[in-house]
Amino acid sequence: MADYSLLRVLLVDDSEVDQLTLQALLEAIGFAPNNITVVSSAAEALDHLLVKKELVDVMTTDLQMPEMDGKKLVDLVYTNPVTRQVRVVMVTTEDEPALQDFLQERRAKHLQKKGLMPDQLLRVMKGFYPDGAVG
Length: 135
Hints:
Number of helices: 5
CATH superfamily: Response regulator
CATH class: Alpha Beta
Number of domains: 1
Distance between the termini: 14 Å
Shape: globular
Largest sheet: 5 strands, parallel
CATH architecture: 3-Layer(aba) Sandwich
Structural class: alpha/beta
Number of strands: 5
């Protein structure tokens, strides 16, 4: 199994309960707690990425958030040369084909929030880092 402990994660979700749940799942598959930054909005995420220029390997985001939704955030991250390399996972209850197409075009992955288990998150990470090639 790949060692995810050195990867830096930006977790974006406006729900505190979902933040705690996803953080626990990330830690369960090997992400280090001190490498997980949690923010409550897309604006905060962009501040971390573009203003503070924090290095991030993986960003998880919710779809439905106030002010700026997850699709707009994913689009801004994907189209900016500074952040284009960030691997993105959208964790949401939505599962429309149009959303799947949108994410696939931006090299992002989708996970169903309802009933999310560590093995599902691990499969997505293995898709980003095949053969344990982390970094």
